[in-house]
Amino acid sequence: MGHSSLAMVFFVFAEPEENSVFDNWHGLEYNPNMLLGMHISGAGKIYQTLDLAHELGCNTMQIFSRSPQRWRDADLDPRDIEEFRSRNAKLKISPVFIHVPYLINLASPDPKLYKASIKAYIEDIGEAGAMQADYIVTHMGSHKDTSEEAGIERLIKALNSIIEQTKGSSVGILLENTSGSGSWLGYKFSHHREIIAGLKHKERVGLCIDTAHAYLAGYDIASKNGLEAMLEEIDREVGLRLIKLIHLNDACGRLGSLHDRHDHIGKGSIGLAGMRRIINHPKLRDLPFILETPKKKEGDETRNLKAVRKLRK
Ligand SMILES: [Zn+2]
Ligand SMILES: [Zn+2]
Questions:
Q1: Which candidate in 81, 174, 180, 297 could, as Cys together with 187 as Cys, close a disulfide (CB 3.0–4.6 Å)?
Q2: Which ligand is nearest to the CA of 210?
Q3: CB-based neighbours (< 5 A) of ligand 2, an ion
Q4: What span, in angstroms and rounded, lies between the C-alpha atoms of 172 and 195?
Q5: What's the gap in Å between 143 CA and the centre of ligand 2?
Q6: Ligand closest to the CA atom of residue 217
Q7: Which CATH number does the domain housing residue 276 bear?
């Protein structure tokens, strides 16, 4: 062992300074008992997202498997997938979540878009499986001014077809709640109940709760009673055990304002006290927390991760 390992031992015990270069050091050591990660966006190779997550001290992460704004133009290079797997055998970032691109709309009334969405989703699950990713996170789709009932019906059909065509895959499918803007489904949990009730095979399906979306959709999770009320509603509608992931974002905007805008942890409408309650809630604390907080300035990522670690009891 050389000098560097001695230095390492020293810094583990040293209190890190605000914004110091040691912010990234041994991030996991602050709260080894917490599953904390963030959405990692990288323009490079898919396996480099693992290095970025590791450097930030994350033990879980979410990524796009390809450009979120474009339709799939090519498959991932099998060599990159292989490299992803072998790197993660060492780094052990787990669970790994893949967020589907925004263009996918499994509730679309447009037959062409609907079919293309199902096809792309199936291909994404295949790749996620090859990468040994654990879950695929999806917004529940927009009914585009048809009706919620019709949208939910299309979504159920799409999911049944996807689950059937990816039989044998161990990749879980997570339905995320939305902020309720436009014609998006999933701003209340009766939607999740109706959808899950319509599935022929439910084993691989769970929920992702986005805290910003919930608040903007009208759940006052900044308050103790509001958080309890939402958890009761989820439990009543689908069961809390179906929650597999928390998208931990503060909300930018008023309660129930419907616009989907995320804020830095503690800086938005949910605030520090609200965030502390969510992070430490006995029914939520063992779940993976993924940040999708804004990345505008240098250091935003470490500042937000640090804020969460500080709030954790
Ligand atoms: Zn989210
Ligand atoms: Zn959002």
A1: 180
A2: 1
A3: 260
A4: 16
A5: 18
A6: 2
A7: 3.20.20.150
